[in-house]
Write a structure and sequence with these properties.
Blueprint (H helix, E strand, L loop, with lengths): L3 H7 L6 E4 L3 E5 L7 E7 L14 H18 L5 E4 L15 E5 L13
Antiparallel strand pairs: 1-2, 2-3, 3-5, 4-5
The structure holds 2'-deoxyguanosine-5'-monophosphate (DGP).
The site of 2'-deoxyguanosine-5'-monophosphate has 14 residues, from strand 2.
C-alpha cells in the first residue's frame, strides 16, 4: 500500500526529524502553521482515529506519553495544542494517523477564530 507517512517512517522520503523511538516518529510539518508544528505518527500503519482498536491502542497511549517531550524538542515552550483530523469533513489529507503538535506562539482561544 502506498502511504506517504509510511514512506517517511521507512526513510524513503526525507523528513525533518524531531524525535524517534521504536514505535513513534515525530517530524516537522512541511507547511507549518506555527513556529512549532510537529507531526507525531505511529510507525505501524493506522489510517486515522477511526482505525484505533483494543489491539493497537497501546501505540496511541505511547504517543501521548511522548508528546510533552516532543513539544519541548519542537519548540513549544509555553503551551501547545494537539490536533488530529479524522475523515473528509475534518480535512484529513494524509490517511495515516497523525497528531499535530502546534505551539511556539500564542494560539487563538478557539478553533474558529471568529468565535473569539
Ligand atoms: P492533515 O490535513 O491533518 O491530514 O495533515 C497532514 C499534514 O501533513 C499537513 O499539515 C501537511 C503535512 N504533510 C503533507 N505532506 C508532507 C510531507 O511530505 N512531509 C511533511 N513533513 N509533512 C507533510
Amino acid at each position: 500500500m502506498d502511504c506517504l507517512f509510511c514512506s517517511i517512517v521507512k526513510g524513503e522520503i526525507p523528513s525533518n526529524k524531531v524525535y524517534e523511538d521504536e514505535t513513534v516518529l515525530a517530524f516537522r510539518d512541511i507547511a507549518p502553521e506555527a513556529p512549532c508544528h510537529v507531526l507525531v505518527v505511529p510507525k505501524t500503519h493506522i489510517g486515522s482515529v477511526d482505525g484505533i482498536t483494543a489491539e493497537n491502542s497501546a501505540v496511541v497511549a505511547h504517543i501521548f506519553e511522548c508528546i510533552p517531550k516532543i513539544a519541548k524538542l519542537g519548540g513549544a515552550g509555553n503551551g501547545y495544542r494537539v490536533i488530529t483530523n479524522c475523515g473528509p469533513d475534518a480535512c484529513q489529507s494524509v490517511p495515516h494517523l497523525h497528531f499535530h503538535v502546534i505551539g511556539g506562539t500564542q494560539l487563538p482561544a478557539h478553533c474558529f477564530p471568529e468565535n473569539d
